[in-house]
Amino acid sequence: MPPKFKRILYQVLETSKSSNVYSLADDFIITCLILINVAAFIASTSPSFYREYQSILESIEIVSSLVFTIEYALRLWVCTVDSKYSHPIRGRLRYALTPLAIIDLVSFLPFYALLLFPHLSVFNLISLLRLLRLLKMSRYSESVRTLGAVLHAKKEELLATAFAVFILLIFASSIMYFVESEAHPEAFASIPDAMWWGVVTLTTVGYGDIYPITPLGKFLGAILAFLGIGIFALPAGIIASGFSEEVQRKKQEKIAANLERSANYQSVKMLPDIDISLEQQQRDLALYVESSAELMEMCIQTAKQKLGSHIENEEILRDLAIHLYSETVRKFEL
Q1: Cα separation of 148 and 200, whole Å?
Q2: Residues 64-74: what's their mean pLDDT?
């Protein structure tokens, strides 16, 4: 197929422009297909619903998997339009290892795995990977891309918070084990058992299946519960500030883009005036050259008439004509 068609297909698949009808149609169709497929997968876990609508659910899975396969193949084919993946083999391999390409691959692999090995129970677990199709929406949803950008920008702060929670969990579970192990050995038989209590306490869930019974254990549990409220409020604050920064950044980008478009528009408006002035200058220059040429011709004719019979060398006559021309221009300010 012609390279032009390849570039057009690349813009349809890889860009989301409101001005491109085909790109908008692709985004809408794939998004709807993802939502329908995930909804069908969730509904298929109900035995009664699956028995009644088995053929419809299986048809949805077949159609969506085939569409995702064709989409992945097309993306792999047109990716060489991008200069980063221009090499026909190495470029496509690099593209296939990008996170979004891996998500695209995983979105339809469970279908073929279950098709090839329908009787192996271990492959039934692979069907859970169908839920990863929701991640494909990051290509088409601005909100999902914003969330990913926030998490990427705040990854150091979130990792630091997670590490602090882990350290606090280890200390709290170990102390509670030594405090409660003798009085309540069934619940706090080991530090790993105590860690379950620490998790539900730090998250303020409090299932009630494991709890301290000694006064010191209750006191430590109350302190840990208060700490859990503050510790788990940190990620929420970090993500909220990240969202605020991302929104402000996008607003500034829009303002800058609008200013740039406005400046370009003003430049375009001034182009006719610039063209008119340039055209006037060209006309003036042409007239000046024409008049100078006539004046120069007159100077040459005058020099030949006055001195031609006395001077045989043409170069001397030409020099005299040039000198006469210069003096005439200077004297009359031409």
Answers
A1: 28
A2: 90
Amino acid identity of residue 160, one-letter, is A
Q: How does pLDDT run across 105-147, given as a tens digit for each residue? A: 888 887 887 787 766 555 556 667 777 777 777 777 777 778 8
Q: Identify whether the C-beta of residue 212 lies closer than 8 Å to the C-beta of residue 178.
A: no
Domain-located, residue 269:
no
Q: What is the phi/psi pair of residue 123, to 5°?
A: -80, -15
283 shares a domain with 222? no
Q: Which of 8, 145, 144 is nearest to 74 (CA)?
A: 8
Question: Which pair of structure tokens corresponds to residue 44?
Answer: 């298929």
Same domain, 18 and 129: yes
Burial class, 73, CB count within 10 angstroms (exposed 0-12 / middle 13-18 / buried 19+): exposed
C-alpha to C-alpha distance for 117 and 276, rounded to whole angstroms? 75
Output the six-digit token pair for 2.
Answer: 């012609």
**Per-residue pLDDT averaged across 24-48, rounded?**
86
| Secondary-structure percent of the chain, ordered helix, strand, coil, rounded to 5 | 85, 0, 15
Tell me if 214 sits within 8 A of 187, measured CB to CB.
Answer: no
What's residue 271's pLDDT?
A: 47
CATH code for position 57: 1.20.120.350
How many Cα neighbours within 13 Å face the side chain of 99? 6
Residue written as token pair 């003036």: 284
- Tell me which amino acid residue 321 is: A
- Residue 166 corresponds to which amino acid? F
CA-derived radius of gyration, the chain: 39
Domain membership of residue 198 as a residue range: 155-245
State the DSSP code for 333: T
Instruction: Name 186's Cβ contacts closer than 8 Å, sequence gap at least 6.
Output: none
Can you read off the two tokens belonging to residue 137? 């929406």
Q: How many domains in the chain?
A: 3
Q: Taking the CA of residue 294 as centre, how many other CA atoms within 13 Å lie in the half-sphere pointing to its CB?
A: 6
Residue with tokens 């809408």: 28
pTM of the predicted protein model: 0.57
- DSSP H or E stretch at residue 50: helix 47-52
* Phi, psi angles (nearest 5°) of residue 140: -115, -15
Whether 130 contacts 38, CB under 8 Å: yes
